[in-house]
# Entry
Amino acid sequence: MTTTIPDNLQALESEAVHIFREVAGEFDRPVILFSGGKDSTVLVHLALKAFWPAPIPFPLLHVDTGHNFPEVIDFRDNLVAEHGLRLVVARVEDWIADGRLAERPDGTRNPLQTVPLLDTITEHRFDAVFGGGRRDEERARAKERIFSLRNAFGQWEPRRQRPELWNLYNGRHRPGEHVRVFPLSNWTELDVWHYIARENIALPDIYYAHEREVFRRDGMWLTSGPWGGPREDEPVERRVVRYRTVGDGSCTGAVESTATEVAEVIAEVAASRLTERGATRADDRLSEAAMEDRKREGYF
Amino acid sequence: MESTSSTSQTPGEPETPGGTQLLRLATAGSVDDGKSTLVGRLLYDTKSVLADQLDAVHRASVDRGLSTPDLSLLVDGLRSEREQGITIDVAYRYFATPRRSFVLADTPGHVQYTRNTVTGASTAQLAVLLVDARKGVVEQTRRHAAVLALLGVPRLVLAVNKIDLVGYDQSVFARIAKEFTAHATALGYTEADLLTVPVSALVGDNVVERSAHTPWYAGPTLLEHLETVPVEADPHDAPLRFPVQYVIRPRTAAYPDYRGYAGQVAAGSVAPGAEVVVLPAGLRTRVARIDTPDGELAEAVAGRSVTLVLADELDISRGDLIAAADRPPRLADDFDATVCWLADRPLRAGARVLVKHGARTVPAIIGELSSRFDEQNLSSVDGPDQLALNDIGRVRVRTAEPLPIDDYRSSRRTGAFLVIDQADGTTLAAGLVGAPLPVLETGVARPAASADPELPSDERALVSPGP
Ligand SMILES: Nc1nc2c(ncn2[C@@H]2O[C@H](COP(=O)(O)OP(=O)(O)OP(=O)(O)O)[C@@H](O)[C@H]2O)c(=O)[nH]1
Ligand SMILES: [Mg+2]
# Structure
C-alpha cells in the first residue's frame, strides 16, 4: 500500500498549520471537534504548534455519546489539563434525557451525535468547526473541500460546494451558517501514524495491542460496555487486539493485533488490506452512501 | 512496479532522502471520456485499492448489471454521481509507488461543473487531459486545455483513451496527437511539457502495464511518465513573499513580550538577518529569528509555515506582506488581471466585489472588461459586455486599498486572488494578476483585436506575435 515519505510530512504539517492560522485570523468563534481519537489528537497537536508559544485561541468540543472507552476519557482530561485547554462537552445522554433525541433500536449512538453537535454550535455561536476528517477515509469525504460551508441547518450540500482555488480559502458565511474546516484533508492513515511517530504524540492506550474480552458481531470484535454486551449466541473470548479508530463503543470494532508500539502499528497499517473504516465501523456498512447521508445531515 | 524501476532517474530531479517525491496531478477532459475510469485503473493496477473498497465496487457493479467491475465507482463517491454515471465534484485520492507519492484530483468533465475542474487544477503540477479516441479533440478539451494553461499547470499529458474502441489504430492516435499538440503549443506549452499516450482505461492498456495492442507506441506508459517526469520545485532564488496570517502575542508569564508574525513562505526563502520590507506600509527591518515550536531555523523555503520575529517593533497585522527589501512586489490599487468566471450570474463592468489576496480581503470594483478570450479558436474578443459562466477574460481591478501584487507568471501564490460576492460570500472567480495566457502565433486564428490602440503598451506586447 502507500509508503510515506518524511518530507511529505513537513509539507502536510505546514499546510495544516496554515489552515489553522487562516481560521484564527478570519473567524470570531472557532472550535476544535475532539473525540480523543488519533486524528483529533493530531489536530490538537498541530493547533498547539500553529500558535506556539501562545495557547490555542479556541476551545475543544467533545460530543460525548456516553458510550466511551474509559481510557479515552482519561486521556482527554489529561490532555486538556496538561495544555490548559478549554473543553466544551455536549452529552448525547442529556438530549436523550429531555426527549430531544430517542435511543435507536440498535443501541448505537454514533448517528445521534449530529443533533447535539448542531445545537451546541448554535448555542455557542461557533462559526468555524475544525474536524479531523481525512479524504482518504471514505469516498464521500474524498469529495469535500478543506473549508466546507454548512447552511443554517448544518447541512452539507455536495452539489453546491464553492470552488477552492490554490490555497486561498474562502471562509465567508452568512449569520447562522458555519464552516467546517478539515486541516487533515490530505493526510492518509499512514501519514497520521508516521507523524505520530515523528512527533512522539501520546494516544489513548487502546490504539496499541492489549488483551481484552471481546465478542464477534458482523465480522468485528466488539467489547462490552455501558452500551451493552454480547447476545446469548455471541461467546466472549480474550483476544489481543487494538483499535484502529475510536468512536461510539457500540459500533467501533477492534482488530487483532500484536502491535504494541508506533513502528509496529505503521508496519501493520501498511500491510493491511482493509481500510480503517471497513475494518472497524459498523455504521459505514449500513449502505453504499452511509457516510454521505450522515454528512448531509450535519455529521462530522 | 518492478518493471518501471529500470527507468532512469531524470537528470535535474532533486533527490530526496526517501528517493521519492510528491506529484500533484489532476484529470481533465470532456464528459464520459473516461477520467474516473482511468483514475480507478491507476489505483487498481498499482494495488492501491483495499479489499473492502474493491468489494464495494464489485457489489455496486453487480447491482448495476455489469459483468466487469466499473472502476470509476472507486472515485465517483457521491450518490448522485453514481446514479447519473458522471462526476460532479473533484475527488482527491492518494497513492504511492516505490518511486513517488501522488495526490490525484479527479475532476468532472461536464461543462456545468467546470468550476470544480478549476478547483482540482489550481494546485496541480501536471494534468492528464483525456480525449475519447472516437471523438478526438472536442470543445470541452479545448476549454480545459485553456484553463490548465491559464492556471500555469506546468505539464500536460494527453491520454487518447478508448483506443480499444478504434481497433488500436495508430493513425487515429497520430491524428489526434498532432491536432492537440498544435493547440497546446499555441497555448504556450513546449513539446518537452507534453506527452501523448494511447490508453484504454477500461482494459488497462498503457496505464500501468504496457499494451501488446500498440506495438507502434514506443513512449512510456502513463505511470512510467508520472513516476519520472521532473517536478518543478518552487524556485529557491525567487524573492521572499510572506503574507502575515496571524500575530502571535502570548502575553503569558513565560513570554510576556513575545511578538511573532505567523505565516507560510509563499515564494522564495528567508533566513535570519534578511532585509525585508513590510507592505503596504513600506517599513523596512530585518528578520531577527525564524521560530518554530521545534526550535529556530537557519532558513525557511517556500511552503514552510513558520513564525518570523523582526528586529524592530513595527505595527504589523494580518494581511500585511513581508517581502524581500531589494525585490519587493508592486503595490497597486488599480491593475490588470485575467479572471476565470465561475459563477452562474455573469460579470458586468462596475461590479462591486471582494478580492482575497494572500491574507488580505478588500472591497474592489471590476472597472472594465477589456477582452474575452475565445478558448475555442484561441482569439480574443474586445470589450465584451459581460463574462458568463466559464468565460476567461481580461479585466481592470480597482481595490479599496493597495495590494502587494506580483505577475501570476512570476509568482503563482502572490499573483493569484479570489473574487468573492459581497452579499453571500460565494467565490465568483479565479483571479490572476496580468495576462498568463500567451496569444498565439501561427496556425490558429489571430486575435482580431490585438492591435487595439486603447491597450497599454505592455498589454499589447502580450497579444501580439512573439519574436
Ligand atoms: N471501451 C472503453 N470504454 C471506456 C474506457 N474508459 C472509460 N470507458 C467508459 O466510458 C464511460 C465513461 O467513463 P467515466 O470514467 O465515468 O468518464 P469520465 O471522464 O470520468 O466522465 P465525467 O467525470 O462525468 O466527465 C464509462 O461507461 C466507462 O466504462 C476505455 O478505455 N474503453
Ligand atoms: Mg469522472
